[in-house]
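Homework help board

Subject: predicted structure for assignment chain

Our instructor gave us this sequence and asked us to write out the predicted structure in token form, then describe one feature. I got the tokens but I'm not sure how to describe them. Can anyone check?
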Amino acid sequence: MLPLKVAHRFWCWKRTASEKVLGHTINPRWIASEIHKFLFVAPDGTHVYPQVRMTGYVLHRRIFDYDLAVRAANAGATVITRAYVNRLQFNDETVSGVSCIIDGHRYRFSAKIVIAADGVESRIGRWAGLKSTVPLGDMETCYQVTLANLKIEEDICVFYFSQEKFPGGYAWLFPKGNGTANVGLGVSGINARRKSALKRLEDFLECNFPNAAIISKSIGGVPCSNRLPRISGNGILMAGDAASQGNPLSGGGIISGMIGGGIAGNIAAQALEKGIYSEKFLQRYEKEWDQALGHAHRRYYKLKEAINKFSDDHLNKTAHLLQKIEPQKQTLTRIFQTALRNQPSLLVDIVKVLSPFS
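My token output:
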């Protein structure tokens, strides 16, 4: 299962209107729409409405990113845009800075710690000797459009499932307000070979939203893999998609990436205070990541592997069984337990990772 890092998973959960996101009060400018409901659509069109305790936000990503940059600058960071890093600097076997091109000029920056947050299959990580490539079956190819002129509910996110139409992934609709929505789909890299995500999305739009106007397009790869073997080395840490920290079941990466980046920043600060930049010291980042989200990440990956084997017939039968259950009892945990009823070994994983949402 998956979605699109480019612009699609730009929403986060909240319990109350006053809750803070990673220590900061939510700014209304970030919010495109507030989500109160989910809808899962089976291959045969059967609807299932998961009961989720939390509500959520669809974000205006450009505004959100801009405000993060402003906060970083106000905290003392130097923000440089349109910089192309083309090489790492080393002192013996320890990363000691980067070389980059800015506005056509070459620069070298020294650094005690480099945090690689350069996205899917990090080049910086590879230059440092860290494996950052993702198996093709775990790399999702995603295509998304923003549609206008839609007659939709503004507070519901819709997910469409079909192994025939979206193998290794799914399609989605995220409302953005005023009759607009992000609509897209993703498929595993292996399945994209025989029919591209673009062609699949064109067919999906023609069938479901033939009269909508496309006002923007985006495409990208989303790593939905298990944990990378190493996300730290001598003088270097990896965070976000570079470290494959996104949820392998959903593909969502904003919250987990910010948490990973926060942990990396704290560990880097500790290293600077102690003057120790060795891999042995920086490995505490990997331990803290595992405690925060890494263990859940592995459970999500096991569930993804199981769900991706479902046929459309199995998905339809699961939806039909769920319709016999009282609506208020159709929690995410119950839905996954029903879908994976023949795989009891996964029941503990289901409860561990989904109970907070049920």
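Reply (TA_rk): Your tokens look well-formed. For the description, you could write something like this. The first strand starts at residue 11 and ends at 14. That's the kind of observation they're looking for.
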